[in-house]
Design brief:
Elements: E1 29-35, E2 38-47, E3 50-56, E4 66-67, E5 78-80, E6 89-94, E7 101-106, E8 112-116, E9 124-127, H1 131-136
Antiparallel strand pairs: 1-2, 2-3, 2-5, 3-4, 6-7, 7-8, 8-9
Amino acid sequence: MEKERIIIEVPSGALHVEHAACPRGHSLMDPVLPINGYPSIKVVLQYGDVRGHVHLDPVYGSFHNIFEVDIPEGVVVEMYCPTCRTALKLDEHHCDFCHSPMFALYLPNGGMLEGCLKSGCHRHKLKLVDIDAQISRLHGDDHIQLLM
């Protein structure tokens, strides 16, 4: 199937992730520690011998992440599923801004959220597959709640 690439600009905070998983399908959502009123996205972060959990802000474009460990600015980290320890790094993808490796969180219906693994770089991409259902939510509402 041929795919078209479209760019949609939405206000920061208008979208949030409800369902994110690792490549093996384990949920990364953590209702125990919400951020911005929504369950956070819990992953394992590692650089060198330093390893700990990070709770990622589920609101797209907001970066109120909660770290168990201190990560120096500019360090490229590794990211893993806390359930199965599968790496979330994308082998062939690099950040358009700093050229560091990217990670992926898998969303329902084939969607994907990609982010840069360099601490302090906030480049990210959201790929949706069932865009028709999402676009229809825009009409008459200034907030989108993606089924992710």
